[in-house]
Design brief:
By secondary structure, the protein is of the alpha+beta class. The protein is 29% helix and 20% strand. It has helices at 11-40, 55-65, 79-84, 128-142, 200-212, 216-219, 230-235, 245-251, 302-310; strands at 121-125, 152-157, 162-166, 169-174, 184-189, 254-259, 261-267, 270-271, 276-277, 281-288, 293-296, 320-327, 334-336.
């Protein structure tokens, strides 16, 4: 055989090869962790609620209605992108084959009480690899919070009183994998206190109109001055009402968020009898826009809240601020950190 000379394709093709490899690893990891989260059924929601499979549509719906992508009828958060806007509605759950109520299937019955969660901001990861890289960074940080000097943290009450409590919950924020690279896309209500109520069906109708490029007349054939966003609809009667996601955000009074950091919430079990902790467990993670850093979260049982009251202190954990100090159970060794500006 005659040898054939090959061309040196350059570093850009190596980058492409690395990206494809990362996508493969991240997609398998995302699927495995999503299934494990659903099977555990322990309250964690890092993947079913914020994973890339939920899509921006489900996150916009949550911002407007507070209906979460993950709920009892669809714990993997697949309905929005996969069952309606990316391949059509399905009637069966992907994880166990059992029939479910599909809230985005016009031919089925919606769940009576779809899951909701308080909050005025919603967001999800753009890709499985963004989720994968953010978790890897978070795991590196939480791995450094297991030594004896991270047994307890000191908190200050607004009156100046201080207290120590075991560190059983931490909030970690990691930066992007490279400058300018976002982890996800999110939505936030512009005026949370005076936000109007919208039904799931209404929001879904508008998202359908965006994908189908329906005109104002096609979406709202009978309008009056009392119609919601009458002026916007009237100006676009004969052209697509929603030509971009920005138009949807303007219609629903939302800010579109380009989220370049990621928040991760970890918890661990504290054993007061042995003065020890179990391993850290990820509760949730989601794209964010906070500065990188970490801080312990004051998370107390009802019994410990009662102890605070007995000692003349407030039981509301939100009234305490971390001082930046951590310490061992007996007080030493100690560490001093600079608290992040978001606590």
């Amino acid at each position: 055989m005659r040898p054939v000379a090959t061309k040196n394709w350059g570093p850009q093709y190596k980058d492409l090869s690395n990206l494809i490899g990362l996508k493969s690893v991240a997609t398998r990891d995302n699927e495995a962790r999503l299934k494990a989260e659903v099977a555990a059924h322990d309250g964690s929601h890092a993947y079913g609620r914020h994973g890339a499979q939920t899509g921006w549509e489900a996150q916009l719906i949550r911002a407007v209605t507070q209906i979460t992508p993950d709920h009892a009828a669809d714990p993997m958060g697949l309905n929005a992108t996969i069952r309606r806007w990316n391949g059509g509605a399905m009637a069966y759950s992907d994880h166990d084959g059992s029939t479910i109520f599909d809230i985005f299937n016009d031919h089925g019955n919606p769940p009576v009480n779809p899951g909701t969660a308080a909050g005025t901001t919603a967001g999800g990861f753009m890709t499985p690899e963004a989720h994968f890289l953010a978790r890897a960074r978070g795991e590196a940080v939480v791995a450094g919070l297991t030594g004896p000097e991270h047994y307890a943290a000191t908190y200050a009450f607004k009156t100046g009183k201080r207290m120590r409590a075991p560190i059983n919950s931490v909030h970690i924020v990691v930066g992007p994998p490279r400058p300018g690279a976002p982890y996800g896309l999110g939505f936030a209500r512009k005026d949370p206190r005076n936000y109007p109520r919208h039904s799931l069906e209404f929001v879904r109708k508008c998202i359908d109109g965006f994908h189908d490029r329906k005109t104002g007349d096609q979406l709202f054939p009978n309008v009056s001055a009392a119609t919601y966003k009458f002026n916007m609809i009237a100006l676009r009667r004969k052209r697509p009402l929603f030509e971009s996601i920005d138009d949807l955000c303007a219609f629903f009074d939302l800010d579109l968020l380009w989220q370049g950091s990621c928040s991760l919430i970890y918890r661990r079990q504290h054993d007061p009898a042995t003065h020890s902790h179990g391993g850290w467990r990820l509760i949730t993670m989601f794209p964010d826009d906070l500065e990188p850093g970490w801080a312990p979260s004051l998370w107390l049982s009802d019994a410990n809240k009662a102890r605070l009251v007995a000692n003349g202190m407030n039981r509301n954990v939100n009234d305490y601020r971390w001082t930046g100090h951590t310490s061992a159970m007996a007080g030493n060794p100690r560490r001093r950190y600079t608290p992040p500006n978001w606590i």
